[in-house]
Amino acid sequence: MDAGTKSLLTAGPTKGSHIIGAVPGKGHLWVMFDCQGAGRAEIILAPAVNLPFTCLKGTLTPTLNQLNLNSKTGLTVRVQAPDSVEWALRVTR
After folding, report:
1. 9, 17, 25, 43: most buried by Cβ count inside 10 Å?
2. For residues 64 and 32, is the Cβ–Cβ distance under 8 A?
3. What are phi and psi of 21, to 5 degrees?
């Protein structure tokens, strides 16, 4: 995944909800998200995309999503999660 990609944002490991930052909107993005702890987490790339996840207590839940965005408008990335969920996020292009 690292060869030929550029990290745009990284966050974590942390718990709870956070605003991470902004990314350019046009083109392909890879969103890597790991979580553990009982609860639901959601990655929001406002105003275009919501990615919900179920995180499990005692189990690391890794995910990788590719997004192809057509709008040139930048996106604000935030994670909504309860304090019971520990997570880490990386957005690359």
Report:
1. 43
2. yes
3. 155, -160
- Residues 44 and 30: their CA atoms lie apart, in Å, by 14
Report yes or no: 49 and 84 within 8 Å, Cβ to Cβ: no
CB under 8 A, 24+ apart: contacts of 47-52: 47/73, 47/75, 48/75, 49/75
Cis peptide before 47 (omega within 30 of 0): yes
Strand partners, 34: 62, 88
Alpha carbons 90 and 28: distance in angstroms, whole number: 14
Query: How many residues does the structure list for the chain?
Result: 93
Q: pLDDT (tens digit, 0 to 9) for every residue of the chain, 93 residues total?
A: 566 789 999 999 999 999 999 998 888 999 999 999 999 999 999 998 999 999 999 999 999 999 998 888 899 999 999 999 999 999 999
CA–CA distance, 26 with 68 (Å, rounded to integer):
8
What does the alpha-carbon distance between residue 93 and residue 83 come to, in Å, rounded to a whole number? 29
